[in-house]
């Protein structure tokens, strides 16, 4: 069964409706071999489809780092911040194993355990590998993965391949040392701190070598890149080509997060992050060469739960100590639940293809694309109240179908109290985060936000509660087309931001 | 002759395994890593550069035998100290 993969088709080449493209497209993994697909289909970070159903967790066992990045600050102690490299509680391998088993027993849809920091996992080989060793023996139903800057990767590949780890993420921001020197002020290498271009050159060589070695072992590699306007934004399309050629199977371009209060070089020096449009444009320009990942939430090094949620507070060490976990019976329960989810995913996918096929004979629209925001708490359906959404998923509808584009947080990067910030109300902030969207689909919505959304040129829509996202988006798109709304040009950005 | 780790240490553990003299330990009293001055050799005879000060990411956290920071403000992050002071003042005023 062939599934259409709009995410890899350059938008410009869209012409003629392929037999079943209307209504489906979310599956970025369509062209992969069955073997790879089966490895990633329950991994929320690797499969867009899976992230609606399956949860992940990170354990913060790796405090040390062997490089400095200009977007990172090593003082990682804020519980209100949600960004990579930040944790509240550092764990020993023993505590990490207990925590993982407690979460797996309590959140059965948790399929993946990652080690991502707060430093670099491979700069803490003993702590990282002891955690992996014990988990692969004691909780064999959990997938293990690791995220690294790549400096120590070549020497770790052998050990990584021993532990059930079939997913590795390497953060590669450049392949040019001159650009690297603007991102990495120093690395620690062969017992010396090496600054500038020289350090960046070594890092880049190690990353590329590590990528090739992993690919040769058949370990799946995802590449993360941080998009830094004016530094590597023009360069990342080339990075995408190169890492694909060397065997990476997915590229995740993430926006730079830089605020002065984070105390990072970029934050303090006033380096801006990319706009939503710049990010999407770059992702589109890379997608001709590479599978792009668009659903990354840039989660903390101790995040727990579905992507976009963090249930870490329920699993602090003092709470875990008092939990009695019978992992054997938990594992049986998990198996039943995982099978049920897989069943649900497969039947939804089949229904989607069937439905799309039934529309194949309809006349093809010749209308402009539209962005819509979706409030969902998972399962791939519209099931969240507008006011409860902490983030919205952004989909693009066009005559070629519906494709997932990105997510937008409503509370930006600070989960602190509502009064911090510049006095803008939470509702105004939320509406501002939806700039560029023309409709928002949710299960319910109050009067006040309804009015404000309409004034901002965004149509609120609560008529598709509990329906599958893609179907609802396509239905609304067709209604808009029928009402003649798509004959006009897209509303100006100012209207949405006003 | 011995180096010193002071309270701005963030306990990232990076230095501890590198010390050729096993002089670095977690101090129960201060809650951060410290250097046993009786054991520290400043890596003399083992390495050209002092290892803890070469990997430490925190400016000012490690002092030399004279009490001078080996990594002074701005030397690791690249943030000029004046700019850092300015940014912090702006945040305070907010």
TrEMBL record, chain A:
Domain Radical SAM core, residue spans: 51-289
InterPro entries hit by this protein: Aldolase_TIM, Di-Nase_FeMo-co_biosynth, DiNase_FeMo-co_biosyn_sf, MoaA_NifB_PqqE_Fe-S-bd_CS, Nase_CF_NifB, NifB_C, rSAM, rSAM_sf
CDD domains on file: NifB, Radical_SAM
Presence of keyword Flavoprotein: no
UniProt pathway: Cofactor biosynthesis; Fe-Mo cofactor biosynthesis
Family per record: Belongs to the radical SAM superfamily. NifB family.
Function statement: Involved in the biosynthesis of the iron-molybdenum cofactor (FeMo-co or M-cluster) found in the dinitrogenase enzyme of the nitrogenase complex in nitrogen-fixing microorganisms. NifB catalyzes the crucial step of radical SAM-dependent carbide insertion that occurs concomitant with the insertion of a 9th sulfur and the rearrangement/coupling of two [4Fe-4S] clusters into a [8Fe-9S-C] cluster, the precursor to the M-cluster.
Protein name: FeMo cofactor biosynthesis protein NifB
Organism: Methylomonas rosea
Automatic annotation (TrEMBL), chain B:
Keywords: Iron, Iron-sulfur, Metal-binding
Source superkingdom: Bacteria
Position of the signal peptide: none
SUPFAM superfamilies, alphabetized: 4Fe-4S ferredoxins (SSF54862)
Domain spans labelled 4Fe-4S ferredoxin-type: 1-29
InterPro entries registered for this protein in UniProt: 4Fe4S_Fe-S-bd, 4Fe4S_Fe_S_CS
GO terms, molecular function: iron-sulfur cluster binding; metal ion binding
Protein name: Ferredoxin
Source organism: Methylomonas denitrificans
